[in-house]
Amino acid sequence: MSRGRASCRIPCVSRILVIDDDQGVRETVQRMLRAAGYTVQTAESGEDGLALARGGAFDVILSDMRMTGISGIEVLRRLREQRVDSAFIVMTAFGTVDTAVEAMKLGAVDFVQKPFFRDELLMRVLAAADRRQLARQVDLLQRQIGGSDTLAALVGESEPMQRLKALIARAAAANGTVLITGETGTGKELVARAIHTESPRAARPFVALNCAALSDSLLENELFGHARGAFTGAAAARAGLIEHANGGTLLLDEVGTMPAALQAKLLRALESGEVRRIGENDARTVNVRFIAATNADLQAAVDSGAFRRDLFYRLNVHRIHVPPLRERPGDVGRLVNHFLARYGAPAGVTGCSSAARDALLAYDYPGNVRQLQHIVQRAVAIARGPELQTDDLPEEIFAARVASEAPPEGTVAAARDRAERDMIVTTLTRHHGEIAAAARELHVSRTTLWRLMKKHQIPSGTAQSS
Question: Do 274 and 372 lie in a common domain?
Answer without folding.
Answer: no
